[in-house]
TrEMBL record:
Family membership: Belongs to the universal stress protein A family.
Gene3D superfamilies: 3.40.50.12370, HUPs (3.40.50.620)
Membrane-spanning intervals of the chain: none
Organism: Natronobacterium gregoryi (strain ATCC 43098 / DSM 3393 / CCM 3738 / CIP 104747 / IAM 13177 / JCM 8860 / NBRC 102187 / NCIMB 2189 / SP2)
Listed InterPro entries: Rossmann-like_a/b/a_fold, Universal_stress_UspA, UspA
SUPFAM superfamilies named among the record's database cross-references: Adenine nucleotide alpha hydrolases-like (SSF52402)
Name of the protein: Universal stress protein
Length: 280
C-alpha cells in the first residue's frame, strides 16, 4: 500500500512521523511506501531576504525520510507550492495513493469555526481514505494522543453505499484491529422501519468482523448523528473512528457542517474518513 503523509514541518507533524508505534501500525495494515508532502503557500516568496523556505523544508524532510526509511518503508519527499489541501489531494490522486495521513492538534472552539483548516478541507475533498492523526494540544513537545492507530475502532454507519465502502476498509485494517464498536444513529427524519432493523444489520456486520477474530459490539443511538457519534467515542474510547466522508443526503454534501467534518473538528481521537468511489 502507498501512503501520502502531509506535513507542515510543525511539532505536531513531527509527532506523527516520529512515533514508532504509529509507523508500526501503518506497516501492519500493509503500508510499505510513504510519500512525504509539504506545501509552500503560494503567497510565500522564496526570494525574500533571510528566508530559505525550500532549503529549511528540504533539510527537515531529509531527517523525516531517514526516520521513515529506518522503520522499513520506501520513502520519497515532495516539496510543492499552492493551496495545501488542493496540492495534497492532487498528489495523492496522481500517485494512486491508498491512504492520506495528516496530523491535527485536535478540537478547539476556534478550530471548529475555521473552515480553511487543512484537515477539515481534506475531509471535504479527499479522494483517498484520510487518516487524521490526533496530536496533543497543550504541549511544547507534543505526542500523538493514541499511538495504537487501529487497535480499537469505532465504525459509524448510516447503511448508505459510502458507509459500506468505509466498512470495506476492515479488509486491511483487521490486521491491526482487536476490538470494534459498530454504531448507527437513528434521526427523527429517518423513514419508518426498514425490512431489517438496525440491530439486525449491525449484528450481520459484527459477525463478519468476529469471523476475522475481532471482538465486536453494536450500539444503536437516536439523535443528531455527529453528536451521538462523538458521544459514542467518549464512551468507548476507540483509537480511531472510521466513517464514510459523505452521508446519504445530496444536500449534506454541500453543507460545511456535514457529519464527517464535525467529527474531524471535534473528535478526541484519530479519525479515518473513506470518500465515495469516484469511478462508480
Amino acid at each position: 500500500m502507498k501512503a501520502v503523509c502531509a506535513t507542515d514541518l510543525s511539532a505536531a507533524s513531527e509527532a506523527t512521523i516520529e512515533n514508532e508505534t504509529c509507523l508500526e501500525c501503518l506497516g501492519r495494515i500493509g503500508v510499505d511506501e510513504m510519500h512525504l508532502v509539504t506545501v509552500i503557500p503560494s503567497n510565500v516568496h522564496a526570494g525574500l531576504p533571510g528566508l530559505d523556505f525550500e532549503g529549511r523544508r528540504r533539510r527537515a524532510l531529509e531527517r523525516y525520510q531517514r526516520v521513515i526509511g529506518d522503520a522499513g518503508f520506501d520513502v520519497e519527499a515532495h516539496i510543492v507550492r499552492g493551496t495545501p489541501h488542493r496540492r495534497i489531494v492532487g498528489i495523492a490522486e496522481t500517485l494512486g495513493a491508498d491512504l492520506t495521513l495528516v496530523g491535527s492538534r485536535g478540537k478547539s472552539p476556534l478550530e471548529n469555526r475555521v473552515i480553511g483548516s487543512t484537515a477539515r478541507n481534506l475531509a471535504r475533498t479527499t479522494v483517498t481514505p484520510l487518516l487524521v492523526n490526533r496530536i496533543e494540544r497543550a504541549a511544547d513537545d507534543p505526542d500523538v494522543v493514541r499511538e495504537q492507530l487501529f487497535r480499537r475502532l469505532l465504525y459509524a454507519t448510516d447503511f448508505s453505499a459510502n458507509a459500506e465502502r468505509a466498512f470495506e476498509a476492515f479488509s486491511y485494517l483487521r490486521h491491526a484491529t482487536q476490538e470494534a464498536t459498530l454504531v448507527h444513529v437513528e434521526t427523527p427524519k429517518d423513514p419508518g422501519p426498514a425490512e431489517d432493523e438496525p440491530e439486525e444489520r449491525l449484528s450481520e456486520l459484527a459477525g463478519r468482523l468476529e469471523g476475522w477474530g475481532i471482538e465486536t459490539q453494536i450500539d444503536v443511538r437516536r439523535g443528531d448523528p455527529a453528536d451521538e457519534i462523538l458521544a459514542a467515542e467518549a464512551e468507548f474510547e476507540p483509537t480511531t473512528t472510521l466513517i464514510g466522508s459523505r452521508g446519504h443526503s445530496r444536500l449534506r454534501r454541500l453543507l460545511l457542517g456535514s457529519v464527517s467534518e464535525e467529527i474531524v473538528a471535534r473528535a478526541t481521537g484519530n479519525v479515518m474518513l473513506v470518500p465515495p468511489d469516484r469511478t462508480a
